[in-house]
Design goal:
The chain is an alpha+beta fold. It is 26% helix and 21% strand. 22% of the residues are buried.
Length: 222
């Protein structure tokens, strides 16, 4: 008997923890899309506390100590991200693996099905650790859209377009966020709530601020 989609989702949701709500939604959708192609995906990890990350970073580093406590263990190194420097610490990353048709066996071989999961995830906006140059992390998917650790620490978070918008998007399609078109590299938008003057600096002419026009309530800018 083939493992039920609902069972894969249940197991995965139990493992991802307190990830960003939109990442949870994207993760469930990823599992569904893979299931349609007879690829059975399960999530092994999602949000990690700094202490969780210390344990993972400590694997393969027997003498590793963090915050006065020893986290080092013998074995192979599995991560180069110290506590606070992993996208997992900000609820924007997941790790996945495949399971057998009946759902009873974990499969960790990076084969065509594994890479197909990565391709589907990337089409949704995820970044795949298998594409990294220096330290390939094949189970890893993250959705930080170029935001640095410093920006994440400061509270910035990526935009998650609606899944309806992500579905079937081609290179010529526009993704709208309200009145604003979402474009690559955009990290937010402004909505004008009351009339306000737009100024520009003109150091080479008047050396003063010059009024450009009035921004009106309801206008949006990326």
């Amino acid at each position: 008997m083939v493992v039920a989609l609902e069972e894969l989702i249940r197991r995965s949701v139990n493992r991802i923890g307190a990830v960003h709500p939109s990442l949870k939604e994207y993760t469930i959708e990823l599992i569904k899309r893979c299931y349609k192609e007879d690829i059975y995906v399960q999530i092994s990890s999602g949000f990690r506390s700094n202490e969780d990350q210390a344990y993972i970073y400590g694997q393969g580093r027997p003498n590793y100590i963090w915050n006065g406590k020893k986290y080092g263990l013998k074995g192979s190194i599995v991560s180069n991200a110290q506590p606070g420097t992993s996208i997992h610490n900000y609820g924007l990353a997941i790790d996945y693996f495949l399971v057998s048709d009946d759902g009873n066996k974990s499969l960790w071989t990076v084969n065509d099905k594994w890479k197909r999961v990565a391709a589907i995830a990337k089409s949704m906006g995820f970044e795949w650790g298998g594409d990294w140059k220096s330290f390939k992390d094949y189970p890893h998917l993250q959705y930080n859209k170029g935001l640095s650790i410093a920006q994440l620490k400061a509270g910035h978070r990526p935009i998650f377009p609606s899944l309806k918008a992500v579905e079937g998007v081609t290179n010529t399609d526009k993704i709208m966020w309200g009145k604003t078109e979402l474009k690559k590299g955009q990290i937010g938008k402004l909505i004008i709530l009351k009339p306000i003057n737009l100024w520009k600096d003109s150091p080479h002419t008047s050396n003063k601020l010059e009024k450009v026009r009035v921004l009106n309530p309801g206008e949006e800018y990326s």
